[in-house]
Amino acid sequence: MKVKAMIDLGIEVFKTGDFETARKHAEEAKKLAESIGYKKGMGNALNVIGAIYLNTGENDKAREVLLQSLKVREEIGDKKGVATSLCNIGNAYRAQGDFSQALTYFLKAIEVREGIGDKKGTVDYINNVGVIYTDQGNYPKALEYCLKSLKIREELGDKVGIANSFNNIGTLCFLQHDEAKALEKYEKALSIYGELNDKHGIAESLHNIGAVYEKTFKYDKALDHYKKALVLREEMGAKTGIAASYQVIGGLYSLLKDHDRALEYMFKALKMRQEAGAREGETSLLNNIGNTYFAKKKYKLAEEYCLKSLAMAKEIEVLDDVMRAETVLYELYHEMNNDRLSLQHYKGYIAARDSLTNEENTKKSVRAEMNYEFDKKEAAAKLEQEKKEAVAEAEKKKQRIILLAISGFGLLVLFFAIFAYRSFLQKKKANEEISQQKHIIEEKQKEILDSIHYAKRIQQSLMPNERVLAKTISRLRAY
Length: 479
Description:
Strand content: under 5%
Structural class: mainly alpha
Shape: elongated
């Protein structure tokens, strides 16, 4: 059907990163489906359009279109389609920082997929739940879901999914301050994405590797990876990714004391995030802008952006960003000789720090448990792999023994075959010789018989016959 062909074309173009052309194909498919009353086609086209809006950072539009897709698919009982729409709506909420709603939709999607026994479809949603738990700081739960999705993807041979899982597990390691293990997982993901020429995945992995290098003070390598990720994202027009790249590059330039360039990238990131309505990361971005203005001794501008960051961080209850904003503000007011406000924000900093310390102490045991579980599961997986290798080696040995036995038997059969054939030839030769001797004997016998017969004929020709002899005898008696 033409509608399906147009949707498929849109999806293929979407994979190349040409979102605008992909959306045009999907819009045309939607119009055609509406004109002929083909509801399944309408639902599919709306889902593709929503996914494109997600990748271009237009989250409000994405959610609106995806909800339309969900409604159509529910009406026609397209369960797979319903699950896909639910998942994409969850992604839209996640992009806007509403993790609770995102989790709700992901879990609904899992329920629908499991209800129809779709193992392959379920795994992506399991992975998404792991990502949400990571965002919420619930690392043990995040690890549980990430490892679960990795196991299923390995069973299915889903290379893209395996790479996604490695990226997510790498992020968990990074958040637990295990940079070496994080780098290992990110590089595994990058290698797989590179084999598949998956630009989205390559960009994400480069970005993540850059973050590890930045945290380990290898700023040149960090900047190189960040910029490579940015180039790919700009080629694809992935606005959310571009904003993330601008933000980290700006932050890195700030660390390098190149404040003007830092602000250039930070404001690009802020504009894109605000246009997309994506609050995720905006609090830290606002604070970074304020801190950069502080370094440039533009105190009023520094105050403006840090206060915005503090208000937003308190609203969405992100203690890390609250503490960072309070830190810059108390130092800023101290520099401005406003002791009252400096003391006020210093107290705010202490309160946030203490809350964070208590939270961190609680997380330490959680980290230890998570690392233990992670290492235990990796060890179990390694042991299982070693068992498989041992079984495979035993099977190989068995096959070699069988092969040798068959070869030996074959040689024995061949030997007997040669022996039998040789005996056959010898017997045949003997038979031929006997046959020849018999023929000679028969010839001699014939010659003898012929001689006897010849002599007999001569003898018979010389002897009178019986009638003459009888007459002669009768005549003699008469005398």
